Amino acid sequence: NLGIAITGSGSAVPAAFLDNQALTELVETSDDWITTRTGIRQRRLAKPDESLTDLAVAASHQAIAMAKINPQDLDLILLATSTPDDLFGTACRIQAALGATRAVAFDLTAACSGFVFGLVTAAQYIRTGVYQNVLLIGADILSRWVDWKDRSTCVLFGDGAGAIVMQANETDGLLGFELRSDGTQNNCLNLAYQGSNLDLTQGVSVGKGSFTPISMNGKEVYRFAVQKVPEVIDKALFRADLSVDDIDWLLLHQANQRILDAVANRMNIPPEKVLSNLANYGNTSAASIPLALNEAVRQGKIKPSDIIAASGFGAGLTWGAAIFRW
Ligand code: ACO
After folding, report:
1. CATH number assigned to the domain covering 3-173
2. Hey, whose CA ends up nearest to atom 9 of ligand 1?
3. How confident is the prediction for the chain on average, in pLDDT?
């Protein structure tokens, strides 16, 4: 079996930003409430003519350049997203825009766990020798699906994209992983189709259904994350035959600073090992892990051979951890 090396990373966010002060004009909230409860200070928001494909392609170009390969070398493009430009799939649009003519391309949805689930999925294709060069993208534009009148959710999210290139390699950089799902708690966090009253005796109704904006039980999600994320990281570390002390960087889905702090605290991981950029971007869902990864790599924080414990958690419910070497 072959191993995996992560050889490139990239990220892109919209230019336009909305800070907490500006949000107070939309809903009854305050900079103080948002900052103390979440750690978020501003978020980037896509303009109407900015697409998920645009952000994903910009992030991908950076990752491909760092990996020193050509788009034509790619065998597989995996797009982790819950907010595609096209519900039939957006990975093919990215494939076309990149000119990655050889690549198989498809979308994968696991909400805020999408990037970790995608990383593990990509790794299976590489380990079995099926594909050698994979582009994995995590991208979301949640601002289009949030109710901007609902202060309990609209203050949390932002838009962005991150990408990595994963390549077949003699030594394996994916040291351990663990993925979990619990559909019995699906109603904690939803972005769901609200069915039309389809009555076949009356003929098929077209376009009558609608999506309800994101709905969330914040307290339940908080409790779930703080309990389940340490468990799943521990399990992935066990599979990697590593201990918490071996981790150079804790790279959690950037949902909320209090969740980051609580998980690090429970695991006895010192704050200086915890990567956090959510103050600037909010919760960018599937993009948050590769966005924080790419920033830390380009800032020179993450160095070659560093061991990273990444964990995503969110709707589904889904959660998972991957321990990998940069
Ligand atoms: N501004 C001001 N007040 C607010 C706001 C706001 N933006 N939102 C809610 N409030 C009010 C509530 O109405 C409530 O008022 P009340 O006491 O008069 O009823 C009060 O603040 C407390 O609300 P809670 O929901 O109890 O606040 P809590 O301390 O639980 O914090 C938060 C809410 C920040 C959402 C927290 O529950 C949390 O972090 N949960 C995790 C959510 C999360 O990270 N989700 C995303 C992860 S999954 C994914 O990424 C898709």
Report:
1. 3.40.47.10
2. 152
3. 95
